[in-house]
Amino acid sequence: MTPFADVADYEARYGEVEDEARVSALLQDATNIIASQPGFELRDGDDTFIGVLETVACAMVHRSLMSGAYAGLSNVSQGAGGYTASVAVYNPGGDLYLTRNEKRALGIGCGRIGQTDPYGRDAR
Hints:
By secondary structure, the chain is mainly alpha-helical.
């Protein structure tokens, strides 16, 4: 499957990248993860939906790349006299994942209502 975003799309949102090959590979990975979600359907011709796919793929890659060093911290505390320091990294493994809002924007991960007839009768 063709990636939902390319390196130029990523750079337009988050600035110049050092390793274009890595960002390109992560964008493909993000595309694969999105496309594998239950309920995902690609809507060709829907420019808004295509834009959301591009945005979400770039955001997933950005979260993954922000996992290094002191970027992406969820909690930092320091002390003084007792020499205490503590850091909690938001995404320590650099995982690619979808947030709840991203799933909602893509129309995936939502509950569905339906019915089945175990006897195969017409449900009219």
